[in-house]
Structure formats: structure tokens, C-alpha cells
Amino acid sequence: MKRLQTLAVALAFIASSVASADPPRKPRIDDTIKANVYADNSFKLFINGELVAVDSIMFVPHNVVSVDVLPAYPMTIAVMGIDNADPKTGMEYANTSIGDGGFILKFGDGTVTNATWKAKKFSWGPIDGDMKKPRVENIPLPKDWFAIDFDDSKWPNAKEFTEEEVGPKEPFFEHDFKGAKFIWSDDIKLDNLVLFRTVVKSPPDGKERPDFRGLTDVVPQGGGGARGGGERRNPPR
Length: 237
Description:
Elements: H1 2-20, E1 33-39, E2 42-47, E3 50-54, E4 64-69, E5 75-82, E6 103-107, E7 118-124, E8 137-138, E9 159-161, H2 163-166, E10 182-184, E11 191-200
Antiparallel strand pairs: 1-4, 1-6, 2-3, 2-5, 5-11, 7-8, 7-11, 9-10
Keywords: Signal
């Protein structure tokens, strides 16, 4: 009898706790963090398996892409770094020269690029730097290379490069990249398509942030499906 009473009390406590728990709320813009990204020449950025940013300028002028992203930890970051190159020769500027790559990223939570990231080349050339008979080698991209559960354990670590080696253009210096390092695969000149991956287990700045994953499966506090994500209740006439 006492066991049944104890069980009943426990169940009542659980039910009370669930009932009093605050329902999930909609994320606000101040829940996001700023992502500053610079690539020579362009990139595609995935966070937790979802595409969140694509460089809008594939070649020149070199630009910085700044976007607001909603973090959720552990946070899997996957990037495709692309150096402008002819797909058959690996050269640029009408096949007259060999280009160079470079990628750098900094998030508002303190996440930065460095040699702890994984980096693997998938297209490179001209082979051996041969500009007289240039040719390119390619490896097929893994279908799920950006997925959270993708196994990159056999990928080599990224190599860090200095600003002098990469030669970033003016927009780079107008944005916050403090503490971040330029990274690429081993050969910054011949490797033309490089995939990067890292996992940020917790916020580097130590700030706790709510996890908004799964909001599509619940009704968040302060709004239903009819109004979508907007806050305006009385649209102008």
C-alpha cells in the first residue's frame, strides 16, 4: 500500500512539473550569433547538416559574407572551400596562372578556424604545377559530407596559413576575424576544392544558449501557425 502511495505521489509530482514547465518560445534575433566568413574564392557553409550560407560572389571582388545563424550545440560545421580554377587545367585567368585558396571564419560565440579543423582536398591541379601540360585530378564528393553523423576521422587536419600567404583583400580588414586563422589543405596553390569539418561541443565563450531544434514539431509560446513567424498582429491598411 505504501509503495502505491509513493508511486502516486511521484506521478503527481511529475505531472505537476510538466504542467508548470514553460512552453518553448520562438527564437528571437538576439538568440542568433554573427558569422563572418571570407573565402578565396568562394564557399558553401552548412551548420548541423543544413545549408545556411553561400558566397554570392564566386570569383572577384573578394567579399566577406556576414550572416546571423541560430546555434545549437554540439554544432557541426561543414564548409566547401572553392578556389576559382578551370575544371580541366586547374588554372585561372584564361589559363595563364595558378591561383591560390584560403578560408577563414569567425562566429559570435568565439568559434574560429584553426588547425583543429578537418580538411580534405577533392580537386587539385595543375598536377605538379605543370603549366605547359596542365591536368586536374578529382575525387568524388561523399554524398553526406556535411551531415552531422559523417565520419571524418580519417581526414587530415587543416593547415594554417598567414595573412601574407593568403593576401586577403580590403573587406576582410573591415570585419572581426580576431583569433581566427586562415586554413586550407596542405597546398594552398594547387588544391582547388577543399572540404572542411569541425564539431563545436559547447559555446567557446561559455554562454549558455537555448536549443531551438525541433520547433517544427511543437507550438511555440506566443504564436500559432496562422501568423507564421511574424510579430505584427494588426497589418497596416
